[in-house]
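Record format v2
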Amino acid sequence: MPVRSSANKPAIGPGPIGLGPIPTRKRVTMNDQAIQGRSDDGIVETQAGPRSRADRMLPYVFAGPAFAIYAILVILPLGHTFLLGFYDWSGAGPMTFAGLDNYIKIFTDPITRTAIANNLIWAVLATIVPVSMALLLAVLLATHLPPGVRLFFSTVYYLPAVLALAVSAIIWGWVYNPAWGALNTFLGSIGLSGLEQPWLGDPSIALYSVFLVNSWAYFGFCLIILLAAIQNVDPSLYDAAKLDGANAWTQFWHVTIPGIRNELNFVVLYTAIEAFRVFDLIFIMTGGGPFYQTEVIATAVYREAFIEHEVGYASAIASLMTLIIATLATVALRWRERTAPENQ
Amino acid sequence: MPATIMSFFKWIVLILFAVFAVGPVLWMFVSAFKTTPEILTTPFHLPSEWRWGNIGRAWGEAGFSRYTMNTVIMTFPAVVIGVALSTLGGYAFARFNFRGGGLAFFLLLYGLTVPFQALMIPLFYNFSRFGLINEYPGLIAALIAVHLPFGIFLMRSFFVNAQAEIADAARIDGCSEYGVFWHAMLPLARPGVLALTTILFTDQWKAFLLPLILIQDDARRPLTLGLLFLRDAQSQQQYELLAAGVIIASVPTILLFLATNRYFQQGLVAGSSK
């Protein structure tokens, strides 16, 4: 989870992590300021006197194994992907250096361009829609309701999030089936057979059909976070607003939203990152089709790497995608930090 | 009067979204007990006769016993090791200011944004080179690695909030730093450990893309891949078996969620606000 204050701080030290030489002066501190890396002044040698060598090794012993696995299976492959992006390689045989050719191809290849455009549309919609749904329901659930009823609804809304996206994709593949799916059957039974569609087969609506499933899968998660946040807003703020004659909308806008801004910010960031890397639902429900019209960046990477055997090109697309997400996250975290103190 | 109308709309909205959330799932679950012709001709009717045996048929003839076993073999080590590493790492980053710690933490933070798609190409080719394709240890290690950033952040937030006085008291009592962690701090983080365990269990159970890349052999597919395989390979279109497979694949995580609802929600909330 994004952690306040650490995101854009410079690294404390450039030394090797976990596996490196033992620092000569180890600082063990229980002072929160120092813990959060804000200041070196708050360092307190603990009362027990100088720590033993084994004690000073503790952070390395504890964080070392986790970081080693992370370095081998995330950092190294990520670097490898960036490297491969500059080569022409079919996955076997010789690699030839290709400079920026793969990156240039991204912007000239119409299928990849469609994938990028779809991914951008998707990222915007898949952030706004589930978060808005969750906000509406959280506000409704935070009103006077018996706690049991509230728990019942939040549990029901979270249920889709417990299912694997692979399972959700299969369930909704049935719902959308043109011949016997629940949606067309339902429309037919209420006399709206004119609205029946091949929901996943029509290139102009397939992306939005899958998108609905995405909203279905993610709104419960946003709801639980936002509901808890709304319930933690100081009730006296609402009383004060009411004394000032604020109506429900004004209260929502001037008390609720500022009161939950941290959580709202987190939910938007989380949903946006998830939306950017969408893969499972599209891969299973449409496979990027019909006619590549639902292709997104991740499915394009998969297809280029493992079906077309354009490994270098696929790596370039993946690298670009990683840079976009990291940039977005950095901007969002900076913004979150810069605006945070105003509302404290 | 407007208050009554508002209340009416509130209930309508709440109930409509509840139907939206569980309707499709219930529909598929009920379909699992029908026959294929019933599913195709009377999709909204209850089964003429509840064929409970369909679950057994999916478990046996459609191979879901094997898929389930594979998912279990994949999930349990990934959860146990993942929780242990995240707890230790989260503690180190929460309570100690150590050389390299800042950089390591920064790299882990960005791990939250890394798309799997940016890892899968080198993972696939390097795993092939070392003969790790179709091998669970490789898959499990990769599953653990991509979930470490989340786990470490969650556990760190629990340890940051733990009371320092308790650790100091343990120190004065002569505990080593390891003793402080084990006897004083770890018990305080128990809710965090439980929350992380449920969340990781659900996430690993649901894993799709990493197994898709790293497991090619049908006999070793987990449930998520098995379902997809069954859907695409059906020559005789036995839809009820696919629906029964969906039940088998989703009931464990649904039950776990219902049983641990409180921890689950606490954990998600704690991770978001710290």
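Residues 142 and 256 of chain B are 24 Å apart (CA to CA).
Chain B touches chain A through 113 residues (CB under 8 Å).
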